[in-house]
Amino acid sequence: MSDSVHERISGIVNGHDVVLFMKGTPLFPQCGFSSRAIAILDHLDVPYHTVDVLQDMEVRQGIKAFSEWPTIPQLYVKGEFLGGSDIMMEMFEAGELHQALTQAGIPVKG
Amino acid sequence: MPMPAPEIEALIRAALPDAEVTITDLAGDGDHYAAHVVSAAFAGRPRVAQHKLVYEALGGRMGGVLHALQLTTATPT
């Protein structure tokens, strides 16, 4: 990954409290795992920013190196990589996602 | 491109010999799996680190040959 891609990704994850890198958009997810991640965030009713990696090949490849994580979606909270959709689901079911977001100062309404 | 379940299990067990691996073929097409991995190696590690251990065992196939593998991890009780 080039420095410029790293900087761009860094700028995105630090520029928003909650960021989901996904395939497609919240309204039209292009993959079941991205769809599941959106469903969880919507259920928690937290404000989030999404990046459609299908529209950006640099970010699509770069994000995997950035987090050393091989798959998309990827969730970042306050600049920190929290996990993919499986971890989101595990944490959600255990009440840990709600807790992690609240601790990060994110308003969770759901 | 499909990958047989026993092959996935063998790769995980090669890296985590104590692992109990349960693989479910979600769609019956040899391409969409759920894997539950129980290993003492996960103890004291955050979830991301636990999943990374499994992804490392799969040696770069995750996100490539293995597009659809739902993963859950746990330590032995």
Describe what you observe in this structure.
- The complex is a heterodimer of chains A (110) and B (77).
- Chain A is an alpha+beta fold and 110 residues long.
- Chain A has a single domain, classed as 3-Layer(aba) Sandwich (Glutaredoxin).
- Chain A contains 5 helices and 4 strands, in the order αβαβαββαα.
- Chain A has a 4-stranded mixed beta sheet with strand order 2-1-3-4, with helices on both faces.
- In chain A, helix 1 crosses helix 3 and helix 2 runs parallel beside helix 4.
- The termini of chain A are far apart.
- The mean pLDDT of chain A is 95.
- Chain B is of the alpha+beta class.
- Helix content of chain B is 29%, strand content 26%.
- In chain B, helix 1 crosses helix 2.
- The mean pLDDT of chain B is 92.
- Chain B is globular.
- Chains A and B meet through strand 4 and helix 4 of A and helix 2 and strand 3 of B.
